[in-house]
Write a structure and sequence with these properties.
five-stranded antiparallel β-sheet, 6 helices, 11 strands, about 25% strand
């Protein structure tokens, strides 16, 4: 039986898919995601430094989507057929979903166009058996297809499609920015939840901007957990802050 780690491994592998090179790519000789070191199994889900937070794309996708292994195998077998093996991944994924699975494409987008802290962006497509206006809310037959960007230039260089079932209420991950929670406070005169209330998704499109405004100084000492930092709050006192991403609901 597939475990959460198995599901994460599928997305992690796709994040390092060799999507090749093109002479028009930006990023130089080794600036592509697939050329970066392979992601270890214990890679942190979120990291933070003086420039802000980074959400590991594989972790976020594995939290919100589960790869449907039966459909994925059907696609892999179908894509290897002589008449299909030269198809670009975007064309192959759409053709398989519509012509083989007999689904309708309800919506398509690229997370690049949204405010995000993702380590890698991705293209997503939502399919179902019939058209409906509320495509964002997942039904039992909702199928979400994901292509992760592994190249340099965002206009090209995407992975093979991953055919997924949503794990929660929504067809796609909705919040792509990190949230920040106060896990310790000293001499602020406030409860932690009151300190980080405006550092959560829903208050601002990019919570890090508000954190940066509310903290006079930030400290990133050696030996800290990669998702935490210390800060002097503008209203007095000090806080220890953890960066997280919103889990599936």
């Amino acid at each position: 039986m597939k475990t959460k780690q198995d599901n994460l491994a599928l997305f992690s592998d796709a994040c390092r898919y060799n999507s090749g090179k093109h002479f028009l790519d930006s990023g130089g000789a080794s600036g592509r995601h697939w050329q970066k070191p392979w992601q270890p199994k214990d890679a942190p889900a979120v990291t933070v430094d003086e420039y802000g937070a980074t959400i590991n794309t594989a972790h976020l996708l594995a939290e919100h989507l589960e790869v449907d292994l039966k459909i994925q195998k059907r696609f892999d077998d179908w894509a290897r057929r002589p008449e299909n093996k030269e198809l670009p991944w975007f064309e192959a994924g759409e053709k398989f979903a519509i012509e083989v699975l007999r689904l309708e494409q309800l919506e398509r987008g690229n997370s690049y166009n949204d405010e995000s802290d993702l380590s890698q962006v991705y293209v997503w497509e939502v399919y179902a058996r019939e058209t409906k206006s509320d495509w964002l809310f997942a039904d039992d037959d909702t199928l979400t297809v994901v292509y992760i960007h592994t190249g340099a230039d965002v206009r090209g260089g995407y992975s093979f499609p991953l055919f997924c079932r949503p794990c929660g209420e929504y067809s796609i991950p909705v919040d792509l920015c990190a949230e920040f929670v106060v896990i310790e406070e000293r001499n602020t005169g406030k409860e932690p939840c009151d300190l980080h209330e405006e550092w959560l998704c829903g208050y601002y499109p990019h919570p890090w901007s508000q954190v940066f405004e509310d903290c006079k100084r930030m400290f990133f000492p050696e030996g800290r957990e990669p998702d935490t930092f210390l800060a002097a709050h503008r209203d007095g006192g000090a806080v220890k802050v953890q960066a997280v991403f919103r889990e599936c609901f």
